[in-house]
Design brief:
- By secondary structure, the protein is mainly α.
- The protein is about 75% helix and about 0% strand.
- It is globular, with a radius of gyration of 20 Å.
Length: about 260
């Protein structure tokens, strides 16, 4: 009986998440002439602008296939930034629903992460276009992409749950997170090679999860290499620790959400 009830609860929660993802997807592209194409065009246009600036002005063009280098970093970092930003406000935005019916509150931040994962999957079309343009052939190492997405899903979900819980009690978190994302963007080698950083900053990148995930992505797509066991363990470890912290904070505070939303 308990097992059936648990399975029924999981099925109901998954149906709710799928419905919310579908709703967000329709809302995002409603009344847009190009619709889903924006998920492809946006990273391409951003890549063109950044490639022009960093190649001609800041002279970073010595990086092989620099536009591909740019778009890989940008689309993966955008997955983190957009999913955590959406998850952070998910409880506050769902306050009317939370007050009316009994529902698993964890659904809301997790749904935002899954929604951005769908957008990321669409943006991979832009990555494929750039690969074709620069004649970068895909290799079997792309089979490691699902592993990377699992790491990212765990990491973003944990961070999203943590932020969503904090935002309920401290609204300032919503404003501060934008500053953190901006600083994190420049602290991660998205637009520049890591060799430009001084030695102490290069060592500090070892503690930057997004540096590891972006490097992982570039390794399997650009350089056709399979990340070693150590790198996989580092990526998994950072993801699991973040997920565990986010889950514990969320679970311990969710009963008080109703008093603050």
């Amino acid at each position: 009986m308990a097992r059936n009830a648990h399975a029924s609860s999981l099925k109901r929660n998954w149906f709710t998440i799928a419905s919310l993802v579908s709703k967000d997807f329709k809302l995002k592209y409603r009344r847009s002439m190009l619709g889903v194409l924006w998920s492809v065009l946006n990273p391409l246009l951003m890549m063109c602008v950044l490639a022009a600036v960093f190649t001609n002005v800041l002279k970073f063009g010595d990086v092989e296939n620099f536009p591909l280098y740019l778009i890989l970093g940008n689309v993966l970092f955008a997955l983190m930034a957009d999913s955590t930003g959406g998850a952070m406000t998910s409880i506050l935005e769902s306050a009317p629903l939370i007050k009316k019916i009994r529902i698993s509150k964890m659904i809301f931040p997790l749904e935002k992460v899954l929604f951005q994962l769908v957008n990321f999957a669409i943006s991979l079309i832009a990555v494929a276009i750039v690969m074709v343009f620069f004649r970068v052939a895909p290799t079997l190492n792309l089979l490691a992409l699902p592993l990377l997405l699992i790491y990212m899903l765990l990491f973003c979900s944990g961070l999203g749950m943590l932020l969503s819980a904090l935002a309920v009690f401290f609204r300032d978190v919503c404003h501060l997170w934008g500053v953190v994302i901006t600083a994190w963007t420049y602290a991660t080698p998205l637009f520049y090679p890591i060799t430009l950083l001084p030695d102490w900053m290069q060592r500090a990148e070892a503690f930057n999860p997004m540096y590891h995930y972006v490097t992982y992505f570039r390794d399997i797509v650009m350089y056709g290499t399979w990340p070693g066991i150590t790198e996989n363990l580092v990526c998994l470890g950072m993801a699991l620790i973040t997920f565990a912290v986010g889950l514990v904070v969320f679970k311990r505070s969710e009963k008080k959400f109703i008093l603050y939303v």
